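Figure 6 in text form: structure in, sequence out.
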């Protein structure tokens, strides 16, 4: 039998991740977080903080997934844990539609209703949130987050650590840099430089 699965982080985003694994019949039995949570809707066992050696020893009996929504925090936790525990699992909801031609890294999340088309490349630790669409030949960098209902049209490039907000639409061929925030419902029709926040329809820099 495979090892039970533990979540790193246990709050709202982790609840979505739990449901993804549940959809595939996978058992999530525990979590690691800085403190034991007062709210525990799935009755998971607290292993301690993933930064403490005692918790690391417990995690060695589990596979794990980093269930942290914040891009920087997810990256930080993953890069700390990989040398100690190996690579995290992938969370793949049974309702996703994903082309067999994609290239994808490890530790990614594919939520309910996600559609990923032909020849897409995804980095590590990417969140493809509920109902997002990533069209042909898009490239999505490490630890990016494509929000619920967001649409990346063909040949879009998304940099590392970038957040594309819920319901945002990115025109074909657009290049968006690293560490960018695309606001909820924004329409992106021009390239976006690194470290920029974009809102509105049409886009404007905040």
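Output sequence:
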């Amino acid at each position: 039998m495979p090892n039970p699965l533990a979540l790193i982080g246990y709050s709202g985003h982790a609840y979505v991740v739990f449901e993804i694994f549940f959809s595939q019949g996978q058992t999530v039995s525990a979590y690691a977080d800085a403190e034991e949570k007062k709210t525990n809707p799935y009755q998971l066992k607290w292993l301690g903080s993933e930064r403490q050696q005692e918790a690391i020893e417990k995690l060695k009996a589990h596979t794990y997934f980093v269930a942290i929504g914040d891009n920087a925090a997810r990256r930080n936790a993953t890069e700390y844990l990989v040398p100690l525990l190996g690579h995290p699992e992938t969370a793949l909801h049974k309702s996703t539609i994903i082309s067999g031609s994609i290239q994808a890294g490890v530790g990614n999340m594919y939520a309910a209703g996600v559609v990923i088309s032909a020849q897409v490349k995804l980095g590590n630790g990417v969140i493809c949130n509920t109902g997002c669409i990533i069209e042909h030949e898009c490239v999505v960098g490490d630890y990016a987050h494509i929000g619920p209902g967001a649409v990346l049209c063909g040949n879009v490039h998304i940099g590392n650590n970038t957040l594309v907000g819920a319901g945002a639409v990115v025109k074909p061929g657009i290049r968006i840099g690293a560490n960018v925030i695309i606001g909820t419902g924004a329409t992106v029709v021009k390239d976006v430089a690194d470290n920029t926040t974009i809102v509105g329809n049409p886009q404007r820099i905040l």
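Caption detail: The first helix runs from residue 12 to 23.
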